[in-house]
Amino acid sequence: MQTIFSGIQPSGIPTIGNYIGAMKQFVALQEDYNSYYCIVDEHAITMPQDRLKLREQIKSLAALYLAIGLDPEKSIIFIQSEVSAHAEAAWIVQCNTSLGELERMTQFKDKSLKNKRAGVSAGLLTYPPLMVADIILYQTDLVPVGDDQKQHLELTRDFVERFNNKYSSGQPILTLPEVKIPEEGGRIMSLQEPTKKMSKSDKNAKSFISMLDEPSIIRKKFKSAVTDSSGIIEYDPINKPGISNLLVIFSAFSGQSIDSLVTMYTGKGYGEFKDELATAVIAVMEPIQQRHAELLKSDELDLILDQGAESARKVANKTLQKMKNAVGLGRKS
Ligand code: ATP
Ligand code: MG
């Protein structure tokens, strides 16, 4: 059976962008793959976080993984910082990655530009090697992610090829992973600035719909989503990015194609469209939110995370040892 790895940062509450681009795929894929789904808390601290809020978000994300339908009998669900091999492998990856490669990463450029480069953490620059470590430790074949992670996955593949070429004699040490981005919904845009990606860490809460937003808030946020003045519902991401983004979201939540939605809403106004879009999103989110609240109150969650970390450690340590041997660290061979 092939292996899947993917992670979400507990840097906020996941948005419908995270759900459509990544989490929705996790549930379907766990049936056919050996799956590892991680709460990547070490990635979250590349940006400033409040410690108590971070702790809360870690648990909340774990509960959301289960609430969307991830089954601990089929998937290994764990917290990154509880498996120390991630940070250790990341060091070996960093020492085999050039500064030039990291400085080219658009996410680093975006996030450091917003926060003035000299003041951002060095971790923001070395975040991709940690992500490479996350993936390679499980000998991952497939990584389901949103479109914004494409460049990081290319870096991962380059690293694996370089590492194997340099250090393997015969059998490759690391598995070369493939990326899996959904054909539609790989990049859900901000509701307020539809030319920008929707992000859970956005300061403006109106720009995203979080998976835990109450139904009335969901309805309100869609109502105030930026569109245009033409009043015609059609799919044209270049000239009408706002309404096109809403069509992609509607399609992902209703299962109807964009074409059929456009036909359905011919001659109808944005107000009616947005209200029915909200209804479709609420119908999917409400049961997830109920299950999430129950899980947070139960003891089940800690038990699942303890077992997840233990299973992950076994596999990750094996690969880490191979990497240490390859580069000549320590005494064992
Ligand atoms: P942050 O702002 O803290 O970076 P984020 O919303 O970008 O948060 P991540 O934890 O970085 O979320 O990413 C988790 C997963 O969700 C990744 O697979 C990423 O590609 C995907 N993803 C993030 N934003 C979107 C989006 N707007 N549309 C589709 N997928 C997305
Ligand atoms: Mg992100």
UniProtKB/TrEMBL annotation:
Membrane-spanning ranges: none
Subcellular location: Cytoplasm
Pfam families per UniProt: tRNA-synt_1b
GO molecular function per UniProt: tryptophan-tRNA ligase activity
Xref: Gene3D superfamilies: HUPs, Tyrosyl-Transfer RNA Synthetase
Enzyme class: ligase
Short motif 'KMSKS' region, span: 197-201
Chief subcellular location: cytoplasm
EC number(s) stated in the UniProt entry for this protein: 6.1.1.2
InterPro entries with a match to the protein in the record: aa-tRNA-synth_I_CS (IPR001412), aa-tRNA-synth_Ic (IPR002305), Rossmann-like_a/b/a_fold (IPR014729), Trp-tRNA-ligase (IPR002306), Trp-tRNA-ligase_bac-type (IPR024109), Trp-tRNA_synthetase (IPR050203)
Motif 'HIGH' region per UniProt: ranges: 10-18
Keywords: Aminoacyl-tRNA synthetase, ATP-binding, Cytoplasm, Ligase, Nucleotide-binding, Protein biosynthesis
Binding site for ATP: Q9, P10, S11, G17, N18, G146, D147, D148, I188, K197, M198, S199, K200, S201
Family listed: Belongs to the class-I aminoacyl-tRNA synthetase family.
Protein name: Tryptophan--tRNA ligase
Organism: Carnobacterium antarcticum
